[in-house]
From TrEMBL:
Protein name: Sigma factor AlgU regulatory protein MucB
Residues in the signal sequence: 1-36
Family that this chain belongs to: Belongs to the RseB family.
Residue ranges annotated for the MucB/RseB C-terminal domain, each copy included: 244-351
Protein's cellular compartments: Periplasm
Domain of life of the source: Bacteria
Residues covered by the MucB/RseB N-terminal domain: 48-222
Predominant localisation class: periplasm
Gene3D superfamilies per record: Lipoprotein localisation LolA/LolB/LppX, MucB/RseB, C-terminal domain
Entry's transmembrane regions: none
Keywords: Periplasm, Signal
InterPro entries: MucB/RseB_C, MucB/RseB_C_sf, MucB/RseB_N, MucB_RseB
Gene name tied to this protein: mucB
Organism in which the protein naturally occurs: Cupriavidus pampae
């Protein structure tokens, strides 16, 4: 989600928007970085694959503590991250907002607890992919290189760390260009940028301060998870779905986007139960996730309901594009960190034929 569709989004108004990536890398561009580079800076496939794997592996196996700055369009916010890994590669992570309402995400391996203090609510979700900064999408890095050329740019420092800099340039206009800054030693991703037309800044995420190789304090994260056990818990359950059985067909209109999963999931506003036990309106929707290995998009299908007022249209924020259209008695919403034309083509590719009833 892949970047954008996580417990943060499920929590609605109490959510932690932008704290975790779903299907996506965020980026920013400086004029100097936009300068043309010589053609011989293109990495061969073996070198490029090695660096992509090193970046992805470092995010999971290194111990690091730092401050992250996110920028999406004109919106900026900061958070504090702690990440630890043990000898058998168990992961422990804590992400805390540093501005706005207090929010916290605690992760032990693939189980994520999103804490909403004012509601004394914990949203628990099991992740299928580690796709937030500073990791890359957990997909085949070789496939990425069928769609992007990877060039090495002059080295730079980020947050006091010497970094190798790479540009991933798409072969077509269906996806954005990406720029990565990785620690020369560990490979940990220090900054990621997404570039629009003419190198325009769309999104960015970067460490403003980081310590790599710190002693593990994983027990504090485990204890924090246990201490939240007295709060109200809402578990986000995903059920496997088969869209074809329900009358839906989606023919991916663009090369390189592969279906990662299709599930039935809750969507709506969660809050602490009231005296009558009401947790707030929660709707079930079908979700299909596509990825090209570096970015991705989601298609949501939900029945038309008087309880949820929707209308057709388009919207964008930074690199994220949204299209909403109605198909029969259903709303189709496509969300992705891809160009607007790509989102529109996927929205148009969704078709519905009522399944035949067996008598």
């Amino acid at each position: 989600m892949l970047k954008g569709h996580t417990p943060a989004n499920v929590a609605g108004g109490y959510g932690m928007k932008g704290l975790r990536r779903s299907f996506f890398l965020a980026l920013c561009l400086t004029a100097a970085a936009a300068t043309a580079q010589p053609s011989d800076s293109t990495l061969n496939r073996r070198e490029a694959t090695a660096w992509l794997n090193k970046i992805h592996r470092a995010a999971q196996r290194e111990n690091y503590v730092g401050t992250l700055i996110y920028q999406r369009g004109s919106v900026m916010h900061a958070s504090r991250i702690q990440h630890y890994s043990d000898l058998v590669h168990n992961e422990y992570e804590r992400l805390e907002t540093l501005d706005g309402k207090p929010r916290e995400v605690l992760r032990q391996n693939d189980v994520v607890h999103s804490l909403i203090p004012e509601a004394k609510l914990v949203v628990v979700e099991k992740q299928e992919a580690k796709d937030r900064f500073p990791a890359l999408l957990a997909t085949n890095k070789t496939d990425v290189l069928d769609l992007y050329d990877m060039r090495k740019l002059p080295a730079e420092r980020v947050a006091g760390v010497e970094c190798e800099v790479f540009a991933l340039e798409p072969h077509d206009t269906a996806r954005y260009a990406v720029r990565l800054w990785a620690d020369k030693n560990s490979g940990l991703l220090m900054r990621a940028q997404t570039l629009g037309e003419s190198g325009k800044v769309l999104e960015q995420v970067a460490f403003s301060q980081v310590d790599i190789g710190v002693p593990s304090e994983k027990q504090r994260i485990v204890t924090a998870i246990k201490n939240s056990s007295s709060w109200n818990h809402y578990e986000v359950n995903y059920q496997a779905a088969n869209l074809a059985d329900e009358g839906w067909t989606i023919h991916p209109p663009l090369k390189g986007f592969q279906k990662i999963r299709e599930v039935r999931r809750p969507l709506g506003e969660l809050r602490a139960p009231s005296q009558d036990g009401n947790r707030g309106q929660v709707f079930e929707v079908l979700q299909v996730v596509y990825s090209d290995g570096l970015t991705g998009l989601s298609i949501f299908i939900e029945p038309v309901s008087e309880q949820r007022v929707r209308r057709e249209g388009v919207a964008s924020l930074g690199a994220t594009q949204v299209v909403v259209r109605r198909v029969n008695d259903y709303w189709i919403t496509v969300v992705g960190e891809v160009p607007a034309a790509t989102v529109k083509q996927f929205a148009a590719a969704v078709e519905f034929r009522p399944p035949k009833t067996v008598h």
